[in-house]
Amino acid sequence: MRAYDCQDCGGAAFPEIHHHQQPWLPFRYSTVDYQNILSVSAGTMPGKHVDDGASEPCRRCKENTAVLVVRSEPLCRDCFTRYVHTKAVKRLESFRVRNAALDHQRKFLLALSFGVSSVTLLHVLDHLLQTQRGKTGRTGFAVDVVFVEVPGATVLKDGTLAEAQKAYPDFGYASLPLHDIFLQTSDPGLSSLVPNLIPEDSSSPSEKLTSLIASLTSATARADVISTLTTRLIVEHAKATGCEGILWGDSTTKLAEKTLSETAKGRGFSLPWRTSDGDSPLGLTFNYPLRDVLKKELVSAKQASMSSKNTTIDDLMRNYFEEVETNFPSIVSNVVRTTGKLETPSVPASKSRCDLCSMPVLDGRFGIHGWGGDQQDGSEVLSVQTGPKLCYGCTRSIPQNTTG
Amino acid sequence: MPKPCANCATNTAAIVRPKDRSALCKPCFFTIFETEIHHTITSTNLFARGERIAIGASGGKDSTVLASVLKTLNERYDYGVDLILLSIDEGIKGYRDDSLETVKQNAKEYGMELTILGYRELYGWTMDQVVEQVGKKGNCTYCGVFRRQALDRGAARLGVKHVVTGHNADDVAETVLMNLLRGDLPRLSRTTSIVTSTPSAASSTDPNSHTNIKRSKPLKYAYEKEIVLYALHKNLTYFSTECIYSPEAFRGSARALIKNLERVRPSAILDVVRSGEDMAKLCPGSDEGCGGACSNSVPVAEEEEGGCGSSNGRTAGGEMAGVEKQLAQNEVAAETGLEIEITSNGTNGTKTNAVPVVNGKKGKKNKGQSQPARKAVPKQVMGQCKKCGYLSSQEVCKACTLLDGLNKNRPKNSIEVGYDEAQEDAKLNDAISEVKKLEVGP
Ligand SMILES: [Zn+2]
Ligand SMILES: [Zn+2]
Ligand SMILES: [Zn+2]
Ligand SMILES: [Zn+2]
Ligand SMILES: [Zn+2]
């Protein structure tokens, strides 16, 4: 794949990763007024705006004028802000001061993509910490923030991370290039995925990444591998810096998108690990405090025009749920609730994992062969088990040459 | 310069395979397509030597290709099975004429025995008579319910224990996404299984009981587009039936999504099917974590397995707007304290699955942990209809409930028109809404 020059900033960008878009929170968002993030989004919410003329009072405070309708309830700006805070804080019950040991500060890592959801979460967390400090003199937890630089996606040109740091100075910040994944993990399986690798570290991490991405043949595969590596880098960073868990900004809508797109990519087996709160097989906890908030409640997401050649499965699902969300918000939430009912398989510690996504693969079901839907008549293909071990979904993104 | 076939490298490629976009010559495409179905059949031990198998034949492309391929494979690999065709005539004047002609022609071409059974024989009513009785409005309920049982009832009449249908990979993938969208995990897990059966008839003394019919879909991994290509290049005679019933909104939505996915990544249909099978193993209450994807039999009752124009009807109450409304109401209820759990069966509801939870017991939860409550989905209790023995989650199955309503109101003879029409209408509507209630849930 060739990078192209981004029209906005002139920097190099991979085609399917938009200038201001990060893979794990993929919607467009440009200017952020951090302190007023919630009011801003309240003011630009699409679809169900209260008509300018009609000055309906806010259903909750009954004083101010409603500026938007949330799940059929007209709300004013303040009440809307409170609504989002409440939804998020409800999910952060275990982060209370009373659950924190006096001699040990719990620490979590916030994955910041500069999408509106993770920025909102940053704001919510800051607010929560301030409230806790105000009430008890201490906080129930500490937060580090990490941003992953994806090659070419030059989000940082305006010094956005520095701005965030200025607005929320209580957090520790780090910015990591994606190719650091090859430094952060000693997993030989990951390096084995890089094609034509000259033995023993003669290529730099960034060369490895470039050559891995360049070997992928479709936009879906590239977006998929980049987001998988991003997740792994964030996990490795969290472990290295003593965080007990990761805070993801995913909204209800994003989780519903993920459910269907991972299903479409053949990763149904690992859905519970990718969408539910709690222990992740990657070795720490995953937390989704915004899982009860719809995306449209956070931002006016602008439809991006996409050429079909560079459309990815993730893009497709994003567009799909943008539409569903407009008329059927409860169906979006129900998809996430439904995925939450899937049972998480128990994983023996010794279980072998996928070299790319690092998810446990049960019963040795690596690759795309050896099942009823196998395109080749099974048996003889199975015996060739050399090279990297990839789960079904990752094999679709990085096809393995079965003949040797 | 003509492109050589990617498989034999000898012939000129004539077909771009939809599944992986490989360029193949005609003979190679046929062989590969057939071999994959053979692989499906053998890897799942679908057939037993000496078994008599009825192919549910509608005259459409899926069942026509199924019949042709099964005949070929049975001869090539010597399965030793006895294949017959079974068609259902709903009794809608003009609607089946052409497709039944097609089936008759197929029967001749393939040398297979053909049985056509009408709704009149199976239920005592043709669809035309039902429409005459209940009017245009309610007849879709009847059609859907009758259609779902017709093949099983027909097979029972013939003493056949195994019916194969033409459901393809697109149908299965569509059903997986549809059931994710409407939150129906039990159905998701049942319909991804290659074999669905109506067991529990061990106790049944009636040898003709239609509660013990095995149903399977050998084309489960075959792409719709390849089925069409196969029929086209093999010059198979099939009848393109436009389904006269518009697909419900969920299915329509899922179908459009599947088509788009296929465009973005051709393997996506197969990948959704694989995901569905794997998710079936994670469904609460699945048998030892296999959900039937590996065991060969999953009970299925009055199911809709997807695929327009095949043996399936539509489910009433599946409309997205209705579901949205119900879910939104539940959300409000949850916020105001009385939580009505939205279970998988918000849409097709059996009473067992709607568990009202009083606030304080389950409503307020999870003190000090952010884990969402993982609620067990109560396993649907499958019993038998006490009237006909059909596997049903209700005491009396939907078909019998509807037949009851119809029979109560059957005019004694055609001259007797003096009954109070409005009152009879009301009774019928009651019967319909009874059934709807079963489908929609309380
Ligand atoms: Zn207000
Ligand atoms: Zn993987
Ligand atoms: Zn060839
Ligand atoms: Zn109908
Ligand atoms: Zn019955």
TrEMBL record, chain A:
Keywords: Cytoplasm, tRNA processing. Pathway: tRNA modification; 5-methoxycarbonylmethyl-2-thiouridine-tRNA biosynthesis. InterPro entries: CTU2, Rossmann-like_a/b/a_fold. GO terms for molecular function: nucleotidyltransferase activity; sulfurtransferase activity; tRNA binding. The keyword Cytoplasm applies. GO terms for biological process: protein urmylation; tRNA wobble position uridine thiolation. It holds the Pfam family CTU2. Belongs to the CTU2/NCS2 family. This is Cytoplasmic tRNA 2-thiolation protein 2. It comes from Massarina eburnea CBS 473.64.
TrEMBL record, chain B:
SUPFAM superfamilies: Adenine nucleotide alpha hydrolases-like. Keywords: Cytoplasm, Hydrolase, RNA-binding, Transferase, tRNA processing, tRNA-binding. The keyword Amino-acid biosynthesis does not apply. Residues 192-205 have a biased composition (Low complexity). Residues 53-242 form the tRNA(Ile)-lysidine/2-thiocytidine synthase N-terminal domain. Pathway: tRNA modification; 5-methoxycarbonylmethyl-2-thiouridine-tRNA biosynthesis. Residues 383-412 form the Cytoplasmic tRNA 2-thiolation protein 1 C-terminal domain. Belongs to the TtcA family. CTU1/NCS6/ATPBD3 subfamily. This is Cytoplasmic tRNA 2-thiolation protein 1. It comes from Massarina eburnea CBS 473.64. The lineage of its organism: Eukaryota, Fungi, Dikarya, Ascomycota, Pezizomycotina. The gene is NCS6.
